[in-house]
Design a protein that fits this description.
Elements: H1 21-28, H2 33-81, H3 85-121, H4 123-127
Helix pairs in contact: 1-2, 2-3
Length: 142
């Protein structure tokens, strides 16, 4: 008598990579894998892009703060070297112009990063024809 081996089918991506959300849900719930699985792949991709974009915004802010601190320290050093009121006034005026230019440029950068961040977060809904904020719970039923 030979023992009959039972093997359980597992879902794997090519190359032995972990299964995507679509493959995973397809293995667990074959009858409902088409809509939710595809939506989850889109949400997963959008989530990764969102996290990446948030990290980019945080890095940009950290770089800006560091740059402005350097300029602020340089102002103090410059004022310490001034011998006349005119020299001090010029140093403060130069610092103010640089700060104004820096803040204007940084505002533009953050606006662009924020626009990209928010634009990408709605892509999974757009791909499935839903409008942002729409109730998509009814779409999950076959």
């Amino acid at each position: 008598m030979t023992a009959k081996s039972t093997t359980r089918s597992t879902t794997k991506s090519p190359g032995g990579a972990p299964p995507s959300p679509t493959q995973f849900l397809g293995a667990l719930f074959p009858e409902s894998a088409a809509w939710p699985g595809a939506a989850l792949d889109g949400v997963n991709n959008a989530s990764q892009e969102y996290v990446k974009s948030v990290a980019e915004v945080n890095q940009e802010i950290a770089n800006f703060v560091q740059s402005r601190l350097r300029h602020d320290i340089a102002l103090g050093e410059s004022l310490a070297r001034c011998r006349t009121l005119a020299d001090a006034t010029k140093a403060q005026g130069d610092w103010l112009k640089q700060a104004t230019d820096d803040y204007a440029a940084e505002t533009q950068k953050l606006f662009e990063l924020g626009s990209r961040l928010m634009g990408g977060s709605w892509m999974p809904l757009q791909e499935f024809g839903a409008k942002p904020g729409a109730d998509v719970s009814e779409q999950s039923e076959p």
